[in-house]
Write a structure and sequence with these properties.
It is globular, with a radius of gyration of 17 Å. About 15% of the residues lie in helices and about 35% in strands. By secondary structure, it is an alpha/beta fold. The strands form 2 sheets. The chain has a 4-stranded mixed β-sheet, covered by helices on one side. A 4-stranded mixed β-sheet has the order 5-8-7-6, with helices on one face. The chain has 2 domains: about 10-60, 2,3-Dihydroxybiphenyl 1,2-Dioxygenase, domain 1 (Roll); about 80-140, 2,3-Dihydroxybiphenyl 1,2-Dioxygenase, domain 1 (Roll), CATH 3.10.180. A hairpin with a 5-residue loop joins strand 7 and strand 8 (about 130). InterPro entries: Glyas_Bleomycin-R_OHBP_Dase (IPR029068), Glyas_Fos-R_dOase_dom (IPR004360), GlyoxalaseI/FosfomycinResist (IPR050383), VOC_core (IPR037523). This is VOC domain-containing protein.
């Protein structure tokens, strides 16, 4: 009997209006380093630990498996089906940096009953970005 290995989570692809602008935004607002930005600006990647955050245009049709338009929320009040969650040791400082660099504030960081501090912003394409402390991290004074 063959063994089945659990797959590693490789990356998340975010469909955006402008790949180069999104890569630059995530670099400034959230502190990432660029892994790759191809010359055509149809693919970009950020260094994000064991996984990768990748960006491609909203209307990408270059591969056989992408056959339709990406549907986005009709208003700024509707929630996307996916949100990007980032962990920081200092959520307040990270939130401030993100907002100062163009992220749209949704809710300021606050302590949650399960021991995590969490704040929300929207990126330049309207995607919700959850900024939180590591779960189980000791509370700072």
């Amino acid at each position: 009997m063959a063994s089945i290995l659990s797959p590693a989570f490789a990356y998340t692809v975010v469909y955006v209006k402008d790949v180069a602008k999104s890569v630059a935004f995530y670099t400034k607002a959230f502190g990432y380093c660029v892994r790759r930005l191809d010359e055509s600006h149809k693919w970009g990647e950020l260094e994000s630990g064991q996984t990768t955050i990748a960006f491609t245009p909203l209307h990408q049709h270059e591969t056989d498996d992408l056959t339709g338009l990406v549907h986005t929320p009709g208003s700024g009040r509707q929630r996307n089906q996916v949100e990007v969650c980032l962990d920081y040791p200092d959520v307040d400082a990270a939130y401030k940096r993100a907002v100062e660099n163009g992220a749209v504030p949704v809710s300021a960081p606050e302590a949650k009953k399960w021991g995590q501090k969490v704040g929300y912003v929207r990126d330049i394409d309207g995607l919700v970005v959850r900024m939180g402390s590591y779960v189980g991290q000791p509370k700072s004074q």
